[in-house]
Amino acid sequence: MGELKIGRMVLGICQTNCYFVYREDEPYAVVVDPADKGQNIYDALRRNGFRVAGILLTHGHFDHIWGLDGLRDAANAAAEADGAEQVKAYAHEAERDLLKDTGMNVSAQAGRACSTYADVYVKDGQEISLEGMTCRVIATPGHTAGGCCYYFEEAGILLAVDTLFAESVGRTDFPTGSMGTLVRSIKEKLFTLPEDTRVYPGHGESTTIGHEKKCNPFCVASIQLAQKIFR
């Protein structure tokens, strides 16, 4: 069985990272956050020899879901033609309303209203296995109420997307956001992972858990402040 790898496409008006996780020398890819133009995502994967194993949504903001329906439709048309199982999209159970509501997911304000859904709603700690690739759901509310990350422990890969960035964190001024909740999610859920875990954000370049524990001003500052208060 080949090694797990990760690739990305940078898409849409927000230059969003759409990731795909795959196993070396295998024909399947798990797509994470199809940011825009789902048919184009599908075509690019097919040109590179991949079939879509499943779609993981970290949260429901417009710039991470605009391509969902197009990708799912294209993948399912191919699956139906081949007599294969339908491709499913996964999201945390607390994100159901935000995916559906064009005001909450900010798609209406962005000029292209999008109401969509996940086929499977998952819980914190649940494992998802797709064509031999397994990840664990880590609920990280804060950027949105139902925001989550996907941890591929085998490869030390964390799809943190808009929860944790290189020396930054996700914005919390959109519906259901909370900075206090977000920082707590990062410290309690993500900073407990191995320090060499590679973190893949929704925008920009990757980082590591170890680096963010030392250098992320949003999280390190709060830790230092708490130490001063309770010293």
Description:
The structure is a single chain. The chain has 231 residues and is of the alpha/beta class. It has helices spanning 38-47, 62-65, 68-82, 96-100, 179-190, 209-215, 217-229, and strands at 4-11, 16-23, 28-32, 51-56, 89-92, 120-122, 127-130, 133-139, 148-152, 157-161, 164-165, 168-169, 198-201, 207-208. The strands form three sheets. Strands 1-2-3-4-5-6 form a six-stranded mixed beta sheet, with helices on one face. It has a six-stranded mixed beta sheet with strand order 7-8-9-10-13-14. The radius of gyration is 17 Å and the shape is globular.
Brief overview:
The chain has seven helices and 14 strands.
Proportion of strand residues: 25-35%
Strand order of the largest sheet: 1-2-3-4-5-6
From the N-terminal CA to the C-terminal CA, the straight-line distance is 51 Å
Mean pLDDT: 95
Sheet with most strands: 6 strands, mixed
Radius of gyration: 17 Å
What form results from the Cα inertia axes? globular
Number of helices: 7
The total strand number stands at 14
Layout of SSEs?
Blueprint: E1 4-11, E2 16-23, E3 28-32, H1 38-47, E4 51-56, H2 62-65, H3 68-82, E5 89-92, H4 96-100, E6 120-122, E7 127-130, E8 133-139, E9 148-152, E10 157-161, E11 164-165, E12 168-169, H5 179-190, E13 198-201, E14 207-208, H6 209-215, H7 217-229
Parallel strand pairs: 3-4, 4-5, 5-6, 10-13
Antiparallel strand pairs: 1-2, 2-3, 7-8, 8-9, 9-10, 11-12, 13-14
Helix pairs in contact: 1-3
